[in-house]
Write a structure and sequence with these properties.
Helix content is 34%, strand content 31%. The protein is built from three helices and eleven strands, in the order βββββββββαβααβ. Strands 7-6-5-10-11 form a five-stranded mixed beta sheet, covered by helices on one side. A four-stranded antiparallel beta sheet has the order 1-2-3-4, with helices on one face. α2 runs antiparallel to α3. The two termini are 24 Å apart. Keywords: Membrane, Transmembrane, Transmembrane helix.
Length: 192
């Protein structure tokens, strides 16, 4: 995944800089003529577009916002994640979707040209199944609320709150569905 020849890289497209999480450092990504480049802690690395085997785009509910994330897989089994929101500190994120969207749109186009057999997908089947499980738990909780209310006359307000807040989120995530292909020349705007 690294470019060991030490040649100077020239940015030829959109750039995006992000720190994914508390355990990560900031990475500055750029698109070169034939590769994606990034620098982190003074180290520069790259992946040739032709060496990318798959790009998967997802969104998920984050701290006060919907966060977009790309997982880029290489033919040698490596993977990197790029997120739309920059981690600034405990529960503090900066929305960088403008640069993320432009960067990912152009990256998908370049990879499609250089690696026609690369897979471009959106969504996550395991994530969707997890939310389906959460939806089932909320249905079970709703049944318990009805049973408790009819037998005791009490309304468990915390359970009702959980259902009212979590139910729509779970349903929305389930309705996104599992992993599906998308056209790399026109990635879904909602994922950028």
């Amino acid at each position: 995944m690294t470019d060991g020849n030490g040649r100077r890289r020239v940015s030829a497209g959109p750039a995006h800089s992000v720190r994914n999480a508390v355990t990560d450092t900031e990475r500055a990504f750029s698109l070169g003529p034939d590769r994606i480049n990034w620098s982190e802690n003074g180290q520069t690395q790259s992946i040739r577009y032709a060496d990318i085997s798959a790009i998967n785009l997802i969104t998920y509910a984050g701290a006060g916002a919907t966060i977009a994330q790309a997982t880029i897989e290489t033919r040698d089994g490596g993977a990197i994640k790029i997120r739309s929101h920059h981690y600034k500190g405990l529960a503090r994120f900066e929305n960088r979707r403008a640069t993320y969207g432009a960067f990912m749109r152009e990256l998908c186009r370049r990879v499609a040209e250089a690696a026609p057999d690369a897979k471009f997908t959106q969504g996550n089947t395991l994530f969707m199944l997890m939310w389906a499980g959460a939806a089932l738990l909320m249905i079970t909780l709703a049944i318990f609320v009805v049973v408790i209310a009819t037998r005791t006359g009490d309304l468990p307000l915390m359970a009702i709150f959980i259902i009212l807040v979590g139910g729509p989120i779970a349903i929305r995530e389930v309705l996104k569905g599992g992993r599906k292909a998308f056209d790399p020349r026109d990635p879904p705007a909602k994922l950028l």
